[in-house]
Specification:
Distance between the termini: 74 Å
CATH topology of the largest domain: Rossmann fold
Radius of gyration: 25 Å
CATH superfamily of the largest domain: Thiamin diphosphate (ThDP)-binding fold, Pyr/PP domains
CATH architecture of the largest domain: 3-Layer(aba) Sandwich
Number of strands: 20
Bound molecules: adenosine-5'-diphosphate, magnesium ion
Largest sheet: 6 strands, parallel
Strand content: 15-25%
Helix content: 25-40%
Shape: globular
Number of domains: 3
Structural class: alpha/beta
């Protein structure tokens, strides 16, 4: 563009946004076009970025979030104003809760009209709406600030505890012009966006001393440990210390799930019996019964907690030895002193192994049963075997029973390959995470989905087919939420609140968009379909018919779902 008056080359806000993202090695945008960002998305593609267009912004946001988790670079989600922004906001909030770095970039309407509430098209004060659900929220008002605005968003998303950042781009900003010379000066690459944070020497010593006093030590790996990409040092710490470890669900595969030191098959036993627990990137939230109560046994535990966020410490119970810093640096420092920590007693190790053997034998027996129709176990036995043969595969998992059983039955062998409902226990991440994982890794994905969970993002099957992604969605179809057997107690025509259409054929949805559909009723059929689908490397959906009586209410969260006990009807 040239400006005749000054005979000076001009650029505009559209170009500056793309230039600033590219200057920071961001190569993919997950989004959904519309006013006022359509041209921005077109330009991104024209300038060599990958634009993955979705059917609903929440799924685009979930794809961005999981891309951020996999790469330590913020995933980018781009949406239109008000409703599109709000659709994306659920994903932004989920990313923040899970400590995934992402940036939600939304176009917004004229500030003058929004602020006076004069009724603009898609009017909304998006910046303030985003604030409570984001790690940070910014608005860029002038084209010359685009470089600094994107830099701030990137740094906020990935430094310290990662999280979701909202970036507001008013429509008029995108068309503002700036001289090319000035523009060039305003764009830069963020230096050291994820600075190392070295723990204090006395905190390291305190942590080692607590470990030295342990009789029954345990290491707990959370998804922060997986995120940190300090895989070799974490493995070394576990193996050199000889301490048994438990992975949280998304930390599965950080060490292979069949590692001799895993305590997963004896989870309840070790949580109750350990006297000292080293938390590495895991929070003592509801997923760990808040660090107290029956789950954690009779005696109070001594906790050592490695985390980058200082105020995570003492969130639920007292932490004897906080170790604040990035996980790579903290584990590295512990490693230097680990030789001075006595090995766990043979008594502790053999007690765990005894439990493990017993529980694994029991599980093997359950898994071996071929029942018709399939139940969760016989279907998951197949998934387990296929994942074992294909350790590079990404596994996305959501549902109630489908999530609980899959987490404990399907072993993972490589880090950052399991993506699930996470800290919030959110439903609806399935297709978004699958697309994000496939696009980011270029490797196949299996999405193991409850039929209800799938419904939240099912329309993205079209997206999967449009980009020809190697995603195989397996629907555990039991005709409903939890179970398909509830009845309407009034005898009325409406089915019970938990029940879906009986014998639905989700595979036909896939066929509608040109993907491959399978309908399977036995483990043998499931194995054949799954193996074939993965080998084809094309979009596929397997409708796996599961016994509609097999599930339990709320999966393993029965205690969180209050049931009415009123005596008055
Ligand atoms: P899980 O649910 O698997 O137990 P959480 O999400 O509860 O895991 O915990 C992850 C923790 O890891 C968070 O408290 C977060 O602050 C921390 N974390 C994330 N990245 C890093 C890092 N690079 N270094 C240190 N701590 C980190
Ligand atoms: Mg179901």
């Amino acid at each position: 563009m040239t400006n005749d008056n000054q005979n000076q080359e001009l650029t505009d806000g559209f170009h500056l946004v793309i230039d600033a993202l590219k200057a920071n090695d961001i190569d993919t945008i997950f989004g959904l076009v519309g006013i006022p960002i359509t041209d921005l998305c077109r330009l991104a593609q024209a300038e060599g970025m990958r634009f993955i267009g979705f059917r609903h912004e929440q799924n685009a946001g979930n794809a961005a979030a999981i891309a951020g988790y996999m790469t330590q670079k913020p995933g980018i989600c781009m949406t239109v104003s008000a409703p599109g922004f709000l659709n994306g906001l659920t994903a932004l909030a989920n990313a923040t809760v899970n400590c995934f770095p992402m940036i939600l970039i939304s176009g917004s309407s004229e500030r003058e009209i929004v602020d006076l509430q004069q009724g603009d098209y898609e009017e909304m004060d998006q910046l303030n709406a985003a604030k409570p659900y984001a790690k940070a929220a910014y608005r860029i008002n002038h084209a010359e600030d685009i470089g600094i605005g994107i830099a701030r968003a990137i740094r906020a998303a990935v430094s310290g505890r990662p999280g979701g950042v909202y970036l507001d781009l008013p429509a008029q900003l995108l068309s503002q012009t700036l001289s090319v010379a000035e523009a060039k000066k305003s764009i830069f690459k963020v230096i050291d966006p994820v600075p190392r944070q070295i723990p204090a020497a006395d905190a390291v010593e305190r942590a080692l001393n607590v470990l030295k006093g342990a009789k029954r030590p345990l290491i707990l790996l959370g998804k922060g440990a997986a995120y940190a990409q300090a895989d070799a040092d974490i493995k070394a710490l576990i193996e050199q210390s000889g301490i048994p470890y438990l992975p949280m669900s998304m930390a599965k595969g950080l060490l292979p799930d069949d590692h001799p030191q895993t305590a997963s098959p004896a989870r309840s036993f070790v949580l109750a019996e350990a006297d000292t627990v080293l938390l590495i990137g895991a929070r003592l939230n509801w997923l760990l019964a808040h660090g107290k109560g029956k789950t954690w046994g009779k005696e109070p535990k001594k906790f050592i907690q490695i985390d980058i966020q200082a105020n995570e410490v003492d969130s639920n119970v007292q932490i004897a030895a906080p170790l604040i810093g990035d996980i790579g640096s903290c584990v590295g420092e512990l490693l230097k002193g680990i030789a001075s920590v006595p090995k766990p007693s043979a008594e502790w190790i053999s007690a765990i192994n005894e439990r493990k053997d017993k529980n694994m034998a029991k599980m093997a027996e359950t898994l071996a049963k071929d029942v018709t129709p399939m139940n969760f176990h016989s279907a998951l036995r197949v998934i387990r075997d296929v994942v074992k043969k294909n350790p590079d595969i990404n596994l996305v998992n959501e549902g109630a029973n489908t999530l609980d059983y899959c987490r404990s039955i399907v072993n993972m062998f490589k880090p950052r390959k399991r993506f699930d409902s996470g800290t919030w226990g959110i439903m609806g991440i399935g297709m978004g995470y699958s697309i994000g994982a496939a696009v980011t890794s270029g490797l196949p994905v299996i999405a193991v989905e409850g039929d209800s969970a799938f419904g939240f993002s099912g329309m993205e099957l079209e997206t999967i087919c449009r980009y020809n992604l190697p995603i195989t969605t397996v629907i555990f179809n039991n005709n409903g939420v939890y179970r398909g057997t509830d009845v309407n107690p009034t005898g009325g025509a409406d089915v019970a609140p938990t029940v879906f259409v009986k014998n639905a054929r989700y595979d036909k949805m896939m066929e509608a968009f040109g993907g491959i559909g399978y309908n399977v009723t036995t483990p043998q059929e499931l194995e054949k379909a799954l193996t074939e689908a993965i080998a084809a490397g094309k979009p596929a959906l397997i409708n796996a018919v599961i016994d509609e009586t097999a599930g339990t209410e709320s999966g393993r969260l029965t205690n969180l779902n209050p049931a009415s006990t009123a005596t008055k009807k």
